[in-house]
Please model this.
Amino acid sequence: MEICNDIPKLKNKNCVSIGKFDGVHLGHVELLEELVLAGDINEMETTVLTFAPYPEDFFQKKELLHLNTKGEIISQIEEIGADRLVFAKFDENLMNMSPEVFVKDIIVGRLNAGVVVCGSDVSFGKNGAGNADTLVELSKQYGFEAQIIDKIEYKGEAISSSRIIKAIENGEMEDVSEMLGYDYYHYGRIIKGEGLGHQFDIPTININPVKGRVIPKRGVYFTVVETRDNESFKAVTNVGVRPTVSSNGEVNIESHLLDCPKDRNLYDTQVNVYFLKYHREETKFDSDKALFKQIERDIIEADIFFEGM
Model:
């Protein structure tokens, strides 16, 4: 897949999709699959147009937390089969462009759109004044086909990145999995912890949250930890500042591996931690002994959870 950090001027007709694509959830997957299908039917290349920075980051003047990093989004869109991903620079010029000029100069003038595939909630142009109806009207004027894809709903509401982010921040991981189409995860290389896992006689790993990715609500979760070599371990994972054992205030992801051999050395291994279910709040205990007693109870309940899967 071709990656463009500027809007190219394309010679051949393209099927184009416009969107924020700040996290590739089920709604985005359906939209992009329709784009690829339209490309096959019309024998055109497919181009995905998104923005850098994201509009909300631009307005807030800082990088907010999102579902996926740029690299992850590139990989996901490439896997779906798009030919080209364009990161249009979102700036004052683009922000103030009218919907018609945006379509005339960029969608048609530069991307040479023969077909435009968008969600029913698409917005473009100054103040987001352009919508799906606008696109359909402009398609007649500028000679392209507009395909409007209805939003996918979950529990009676449209799936969106903002809805999924809110669910992650609330610890509603079962809903998150349903809306994403996969279990939400953080990943990283295992770092040295406090060494208290050895006292508890269970393999324990620590990773730092991925910069720019939404961090789940602080607390204890039932998770699966997977290595790059496809080893998979059931786990009880704490997301938080570990108030009983640490005072630095830094958010950490610490996982107690339930079915990992005790002599297995995982330090410096790259892992994914998949969040399946929120279990309880993070708690500060009076002693390490009290903490370990609670972890024992957590492990018993985790075993019950995994047996029921």
Notes: The mean pLDDT is 92.
